[in-house]
Specification:
Distance between the termini of chain A: 41 Å
Radius of gyration of chain A: 26 Å
Largest sheet of chain B: 7 strands, mixed
Shape of chain A: elongated
Oligomer: heterodimer
Largest interface: A-B, 52 and 59 residues
Helix content of chain B: 25-40%
Strand order of the largest sheet of chain B: 3-4-2-1-5-6-7
Structural class of chain B: alpha/beta
Number of helices of chain A: 12
Radius of gyration of chain B: 18 Å
Shape of chain B: globular
Number of helices of chain B: 9
Structural class of chain A: alpha+beta
Order of helices and strands of chain B: EHEEEHEHEHEEEEHEHEHEHEH
Chain lengths: 396, 290
């Protein structure tokens, strides 16, 4: 589950990680009230207005602006809320901004120059352990840093038996070139950040930038936080942080009926049991001259109700020109799936795109007979290649 | 010969009396698998599917000599079940459960790493040695006995591959489903190594998918091993976009080196017979064995 910056910062803050203070606002009036409150609480004169969407690179798309007085707060918040923000991480249409974070200005002048760093916490799949990845090159796209100056990226792997040790936090602070109070602050920051990662069951923390202020405080100025969906059962208070407006509406609907669906750009819809076979089926569609319109895993029980739900989901995409159903019946019998397809087809009335059904495994021959004798406009196949050939045939 | 499980394996089922455990244990017994009992805490002393139920894995080891377990325990308790099995001295721990929190698996993987056991999965279809033991949820009839080993991250795609191999008049020594999670107990490389070292296995089918480095590691190991046994490979997800998870928690393109194209390139460079079409796995196996 992906979170907004303001939600991520709330979680960090709850574990003692220092963050840039801010208040979320749904409209320009709320933004002005938020700015006044922040000034009263922090003494900040200027405010940063930050669009809250689930995508990075918001500054590049004009979604992060500095306001030097309350008129500017009102004006900028009014501009940003409601805009379609296009960033390097969104689609070409961008994402609609529903709310902004009004944040304190933390780049104030002082005894030393402010400095920006990069710190993330994530799983190292190679070792099965968490690691802290960090760099002196804060505020930049980390992929660019990795490509151009890989020697400026450091990692610290955490032994799960003992957790992050103080010497590791010190090594991070040293490698970031800090000394004095800023050094001490950084070791505290890193330790509480790792605690927050573990205790919140996160699967990604990306803090970019981490700021050393001109008075040697260390704080998270941005926060990209992803929580492990499988662990949400132990964080009931996080469940309502999910912002469905940020997700594809068809994918949300599919999830509600227990289907695993990912929307894609192609013209051939597919319905498959199993994630690996679903990906393989998408690949086969491409080789047959089509482009997959979706990934859809119907799971282990492909009965009439599920097949019908899957049909409806796939047909919501107007680009779909054909549908390939590919089920390998193991525990689930093919004849039952075939009956499910026939029943669903009849329930739905007319389906205006050609359908290819490939059923293999338990009772595949009975299933093919059922389909062939159903009188429906459905092409049946038993072999994988045969299904691909039929896709090619209906597309040409 | 075969690897990991055979007719002499003494298998217990953790989560034995639950609905999943009951259904699949029944199927396994029907297949002829040597299921010697099961574990459900609090139900020790009962009999289920004509087999004894134990409160703990340690009791099952002591009473019936269990050496292999298959876990159907719900995700919130599955990591604990894995650690219990390892602690009790079980040698092969096959975990079917899908949806275990990553944080739990980090601890379980660390706990078992110095113990004398092998974890398969989680989130996998299990292992089958045709004609001897089905320790998983796969349809047994698809897997005929033969000389081809299969390693795969996915369930139904494994059945598809086995079906294609069998339709070429060949058969399977052992098929190992290693699972599609970010943390799994047995890697592609380890499973391929087991099959390459198995004297009865004459060819290996290695099926991977986007995300992670497992296939590249296996390919590099294969090249370094100098083995003459042919390996046929397929990577699913050529058409999957970057940054989107495709069903399996581990199936996500993170960088340029874990795309299907990048993996296939490395596999080819290491001497693996890579097929681009998932419909040609069986044909390619027949070809390399001809």
């Amino acid at each position: 589950m992906n979170l907004h910056e303001y939600q991520g910062k709330e979680i960090l803050s709850s574990f003692g990680v220092r963050v840039q203070r801010g208040i979320v606002a749904q409209n320009a009036q709320e933004a002005v009230a938020a700015a006044k409150q922040l000034t009263a609480e922090t003494g900040t004169g200027w405010h940063v207005i930050k669009a809250q969407i689930h995508a990075g690179g918001r500054g590049k798309g004009g979604g992060v602006k500095l306001a030097k007085n309350l008129q500017e707060v009102e004006q900028l918040a009014g501009q940003i809320i409601g805009m379609n923000l296009i960033t390097p991480q969104t689609s070409g249409e961008g994402k609609k901004v529903h709310q902004v974070l009004v944040a304190e200005d933390v780049y104030y002048p002082g005894a030393s120059e402010p400095e920006e760093f990069y710190i993330s916490v994530l799983l190292n799949r190679g070792t099965g352990r968490n690691m802290i990845m960090y760099s002196t090159e804060g505020g930049m796209d980390i992929e660019t840093v990795a490509e151009e100056t890989p020697h400026l990226i450091f990692t610290e792997e955490v032994d799960p038996a003992v957790g992050l040790m103080p010497f590791q936090a010190r090594r991070i602070a040293f490698n970031l070139g800090l000394s004095g109070n800023a050094f001490k602050e950084m070791t505290k920051f890193v330790a509480s950040l790792y605690t927050a990662y573990v205790k919140s069951d996160a699967s990604l923390f990306e803090i970019n930038p981490v700021l050393k202020t001109s008075d040697d405080k260390i704080m998270a100025v941005d926060a990209k936080v992803t929580i492990d969906d499988n662990a949400l059962y132990r964080h009931k208070d996080y469940v309502n942080l999910r912002d469905l407006r940020e997700e594809n509406p068809i994918e949300v609907e599919a999830k509600e009926v227990g289907l695993n669906y990912v929307d894609l750009d192609g013209n051939v819809g597919c319905m498959v049991n199993g994630a690996g076979l679903a990906m393989a089926t998408m690949d086969l569609i491409k080789q047959a001259g089509g482009e997959p319109a979706n990934f859809l895993d119907v799971g282990g029980t492909a009965d009439a109700a599920r097949v019908e739900a899957a049909f409806k989901i796939i047909l919501k995409d107007p680009n779909v020109k054909a549908i390939l159903i590919n089920i390998f019946g193991g525990i689930v019998r093919c004849d039952r799936v075939a009956q499910g397809v026939i029943d669903a087809y009849k329930n739905m009335g007319t389906i205006n795109v050609p359908i290819i059904v490939r059923l293999q495994g338990t009772n595949a021959d009975i299933a093919k007979e059922l389909i062939d004798n159903s009188g429906l406009d459905v092409l049946s196949a038993t072999e994988f290649q045969e299904a691909a050939d039929k896709v090619q045939q209906v597309l040409s | 010969m075969s690897v990991l499980v055979n007719k002499d394996s003494k298998i217990i089922v953790q989560g034995f009396t639950g609905s999943e455990g009951t259904f699949h244990a029944g199927q396994m017994i029907e297949y002829g698998t040597n299921v010697v009992g099961g574990v459900t805490p609090g139900k020790g002393g009962q009999t289920h599917l004509d087999k004894p139920v134990f409160n703990t894995v340690a009791e099952a080891v002591k009473e019936v000599g269990a050496d292999t377990t298959i876990i159907f325990v719900p995700p919130a308790f599955a990591a604990d079940a894995i650690m219990e099995a390892a602690d009790a001295g079980i040698k092969v721990i096959i975990t079917i459960t899908e949806g275990i929190p990553v944080a739990d698996m980090i601890l379980a993987a660390d706990y078992i790493k110095d113990k004398d056991c092998r974890l398969i999965g989680p989130n996998c279809p299990g292992i089958i040695t045709p004609g001897e033991a089905k320790v998983g949820i796969m349809p047994g009839f698809v897997f005929k006995k033969g000389k081809v080993g299969i390693v795969s991250k996915s369930g139904t795609l494994t059945y598809e591959a086995a079906d294609q191999v069998v339709k070429q008049g060949l058969g399977i020594t052992t098929a190992i489903g290693i699972g599609g999670d970010p943390i799994i107990g047995t890697t592609t490389k380890e499973a391929v190594e087991l099959l390459i070292n198995d004297p009865e296995t004459e060819a290996v089918v290695m099926i991977g998918e986007i995300g992670g480095q497992l296939e590249a590691d296996a390919a590099n190991w294969y090249k370094a091993s100098g083995s003459k046994k042919p390996v046929v490979g397929f990577i699913a997800g050529e058409t999957a976009p970057a940054g989107r998870t495709m069903g399996h928690a581990g199936a996500i393109v993170g960088g340029s080196d874990d795309t299907a194209q990048a993996k296939k390139k490395i596999m080819r460079e290491c001497g693996i017979h890579v097929v681009d079409s998932p419909a040609e796995i069986g044909k390619k196996v027949a070809e390399v064995l001809a």
